[in-house]
């Protein structure tokens, strides 16, 4: 049963719509994703914390939801906006409808509005603060309230999503590491058979862990606040810097830790991991007007000349000009807007990409990067 709702943007634009998840109210930075499939992976990606996601593909919900296609243990988005919600899924894997999935976690689902107009507005005016409500349908009041919500800029959202305790990723499951277990080199009992990787959880997607495991690594996932000394005590073969939500700049504790681990062991970063590595190397990050979110962004691999069709979800970027060319080599560039999509250090064993080689959702063109990480550890 749908009910009247209203979306209000901080710049005064409002969009009458309908809630397909019942009464509610939510707020966040409004962004759009151009992917045609993968709405469950998008909903559960911790990188979207604090954001209301609009899908440009109109029919959403048509394959339901299932327990497998998740990127974390919960829905992370602040709200979900689609053109036309499909209430009757047709998929042998479906175990629930999208509406019931959202309702079960108190997340608003909105449809019956012109999502093309909303998307074009965000493209022209930039990602911005928004409020959605079924309770307050007065445009002036809701616009005022949108302007009162906090901006994404300057907020450390990593703290809200990072694991509180270290865990191993074993056969696709999280296995918590007991309080009494020392996080030291003895942790890797099978060391010698596989490379051991400490993965910082800045909001890590499960499919990154699946890809690291598929590459043959023993993985321990640690809280974002884990210090360099604790990582050194674990004596891993490599260190992974994960994706995650929000503005990279306020995550200063992670930047400091990464800076002190440069050169210690091979480092591989994805998305927020690239941004934190860029900051640790003295670079600067900046906010893109509306970000890159979708599954068809063309990225040129400067080593091979190949164009990779990539999955992307980011609203910040590392300023290429802020990195020293003596220290950093650019490896990947976005062909749509020439933004920095990947770099490596010229002397430390450290590399990163801004896009998502693990996809989920999206194409698998860039899975080779996990093998690159393996070769870097083999050469260390
Ligand atoms: N997926 C991510 O890691 C996103 C990184 C960062 N929060 C951004 O929006 O740019």
Automatic annotation (TrEMBL):
Domain of life where this protein originates: Bacteria
GO molecular function: ATP binding; carbamoyl-phosphate synthase (glutamine-hydrolyzing) activity; glutaminase activity
Reactions accelerated catalytically: L-glutamine + H2O = L-glutamate + NH4(+); hydrogencarbonate + L-glutamine + 2 ATP + H2O = carbamoyl phosphate + L-glutamate + 2 ADP + phosphate + 2 H(+)
SMART domains noted in UniProt: CPSase_sm_chain
Binding locations of L-glutamine: 47, 244, 246, 272, 275, 313, 315-316
Pathway of action: Amino-acid biosynthesis; L-arginine biosynthesis; carbamoyl phosphate from bicarbonate: step 1/1; Pyrimidine metabolism; UMP biosynthesis via de novo pathway; (S)-dihydroorotate from bicarbonate: step 1/3
Annotated signal sequence range: none
Active site: 271, 356, 358
EC number(s) stated in the UniProt entry for this protein: 6.3.5.5
InterPro entries the UniProt entry points to: Anth_synth/Amidotransfase, CarbamoylP_synth_ssu, CarbamoylP_synth_ssu_N, CarbP_synth_ssu_N_sf, Class_I_gatase-like, CPSase_GATase1, GATASE
Transmembrane regions listed in the UniProt entry: none
Carbamoyl-phosphate synthase small subunit N-terminal domain: residues covered: 3-133
Swiss-Prot/TrEMBL keywords: Amino-acid biosynthesis, Arginine biosynthesis, ATP-binding, Glutamine amidotransferase, Ligase, Nucleotide-binding, Pyrimidine biosynthesis
Presence of the UniProt keyword ATP-binding in the record: yes
SUPFAM superfamilies xrefs: Carbamoyl phosphate synthetase, small subunit N-terminal domain, Class I glutamine amidotransferase-like
Family label: Belongs to the CarA family.
PANTHER family: CARBAMOYL-PHOSPHATE SYNTHASE SMALL CHAIN, MULTIFUNCTIONAL TRYPTOPHAN BIOSYNTHESIS PROTEIN-RELATED
Assembly notes: Composed of two chains; the small (or glutamine) chain promotes the hydrolysis of glutamine to ammonia, which is used by the large (or ammonia) chain to synthesize carbamoyl phosphate. Tetramer of heterodimers (alpha,beta)4.
Function: Small subunit of the glutamine-dependent carbamoyl phosphate synthetase (CPSase). CPSase catalyzes the formation of carbamoyl phosphate from the ammonia moiety of glutamine, carbonate, and phosphate donated by ATP, constituting the first step of 2 biosynthetic pathways, one leading to arginine and/or urea and the other to pyrimidine nucleotides. The small subunit (glutamine amidotransferase) binds and cleaves glutamine to supply the large subunit with the substrate ammonia.
Protein name: Carbamoyl phosphate synthase small chain
Organism: Desulfococcus multivorans DSM 2059
Gene: carA
């Amino acid at each position: 049963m749908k009910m009247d709702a209203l979306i209000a943007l901080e710049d005064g634009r409002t969009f009458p719509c309908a809630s397909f998840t019942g009464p509610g109210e939510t707020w966040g930075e409004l962004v759009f994703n151009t992917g045609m499939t993968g709405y469950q992976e998008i909903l559960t990606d911790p990188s979207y914390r604090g954001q209301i996601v609009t899908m440009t593909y109109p029919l959403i919900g048509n394959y339901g939801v299932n327990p497998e296609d998740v990127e974390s243990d919960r829905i992370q988005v602040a709200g979900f906006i689609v053109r036309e919600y499909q209430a009757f899924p047709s998929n042998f894997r479906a175990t629930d409808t999208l509406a019931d999935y959202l309702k079960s976690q108190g997340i608003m689902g909105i449809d019956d509005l012109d999502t093309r107009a909303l998307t074009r507005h965000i493209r022209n005016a930039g990602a911005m603060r928004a409020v959605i409500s079924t309770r307050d349908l007065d445009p002036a009041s809701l616009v005022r309230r949108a302007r009162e919500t906090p901006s994404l800029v300057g907020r450390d959202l990593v703290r809200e999503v990072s694991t509180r305790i270290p865990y191993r990723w074993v056969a696709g499951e999280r296995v918590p590491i007991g309080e009494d277990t020392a996080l030291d080199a003895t942790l890797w009992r099978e060391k010698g058979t596989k490379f051991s990787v400490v993965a910082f959880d800045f909001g890590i997607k499960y499919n990154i862990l699946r890809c690291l495991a598929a590459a043959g690594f023993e993985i321990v996932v640690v809280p974002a606040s884990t210090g360099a000394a604790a990582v050194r005590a674990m004596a891993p073969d490599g260190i992974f810097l994960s994706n995650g939500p929000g503005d990279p700049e306020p995550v200063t504790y992670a930047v400091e830790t990464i800076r002190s681990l440069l050169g210690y062991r091979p480092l591989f970063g994805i998305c927020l991991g690239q941004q934190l590595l860029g900051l640790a190397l003295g670079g600067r990050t900046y906010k893109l007007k509306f970000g890159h979110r979708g599954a068809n962004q063309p990225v040129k691999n400067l080593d091979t000349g190949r164009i990779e069709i990539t999955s992307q979800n980011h609203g910040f970027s590392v300023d290429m000009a802020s990195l020293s060319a003596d220290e950093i080599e650019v490896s990947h560039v976005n062909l749509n807007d020439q933004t920095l999509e990947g770099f490596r250090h010229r002397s430390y064993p450290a590399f990163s990409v801004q896009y998502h080689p693990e996809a989920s959702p999206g194409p698998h063109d860039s899975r080779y990067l996990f093998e690159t990480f393996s070769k870097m550890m083999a050469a260390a």
